[in-house]
Amino acid sequence: GLMSTTTLSNGVEMPWLGLGVFQVDDGQEVKQAVIDAIEAGYRSIDTASVYGNESGVGEAIKAVDVPREELFITSKLWNKDQGYESTLAAFEATRKRLDLDYLDLYLIHWPVPEADLYEDTWRAFEKLYQEKKVRAIGVSNFKEEHLQQLIKSSKVTPMVNQVEFHPHLTQEPLRDFCRQYNIQVEAWSPLKQGQLFDNDVLKKIAAPHNKTVAQVLIRWDLQSGVVTIPKSTKIHRIKENAAIFDFELSQEEMQTINRLNKNERVGPDPSTFNKR
Ligand code: NAD
Question: What does the record give as the active site (predicted)?
């Protein structure tokens, strides 16, 4: 069910499903969405410093009647804060905005190859991890070349890589690489930001299961071994996106969805995304 977890390489349990809050306003909007999700049974929330809504997420965590240790809170270090000292300062600012003693997962948001700072940044992540200010550390938008460079020079291998993942971008080589290193892959924009709901192949698969295309997409993530964090602020969709533990896609349906791959992104290419 909703509380089922994957075990990360360091033994930490991470929920397979969480709520993403990209492009959700700070304050009442994000607070209500997070409260609705937790009351619907979600235990994992994915935010980021650059989303500007960590304070509202923190307020929701205080407002609900679920113990902190049952929640799994992720945030991300923004690009301009890469570097050893600036990472330590940015983490502390994030922790204070969330008003938490510790985070469950902290991610380097983008590799920013041009800045060439992600290895220094990772030293700070390792320190935060050793000091138990965060239970697991990982990266986001890292390609194989970035992971390889990081792993070569690090004591701790990232536990998670959060990347764009949906049937138009199935990331098979990168997922194989991550499997070899016991790096859990996590999907962002699992619904391709709404761009797959009209897909006839997906509609045909969804109908006989009495499920929506959104539910098929989220189920396909889980059966692919990928953690997923669909975003919605509407309570009925928050619930709909979690009603995915009572059906199963066949091997044939999984393969049919896999064949929709076009290596097509909605977001930027991490090799050239150097915004700070
Ligand atoms: P998404 O693929 O989750 O799609 C969200 C869109 O689909 C919203 O417009 C929402 O209204 C709509 N929607 C959601 N459920 C629906 C349903 N059941 N029926 C119809 N419409 C529905 O897009 P996303 O927000 O880009 O990605 C999810 C999360 O991933 C983000 O909120 C964020 O937490 C994370 N993310 C991370 C990065 C990164 O660089 N690490 C980048 C983008 C997003």
Answer: 51 (proton donor)
51 catalytically annotated: yes
Query: What is the CATH code of the structural domain delimited by 5-258?
Result: 3.20.20.100
Helix (H, G, I), strand (E, B) or coil at 119: helix
For ligand 1, mutation pick of 23, 162, 191 (most atoms within 8 Å of CB): 191
The ligand 1 atom nearest the CA atom of 191: 2
168 annotated as a binding-site residue: no
At 1 the pLDDT is 84
Domain residue limits, the chain: 5-258
Interface predicted TM-score (ipTM): 0.99
- The pTM (predicted TM-score) of the whole model is 0.99
Mean pLDDT of the chain: 98
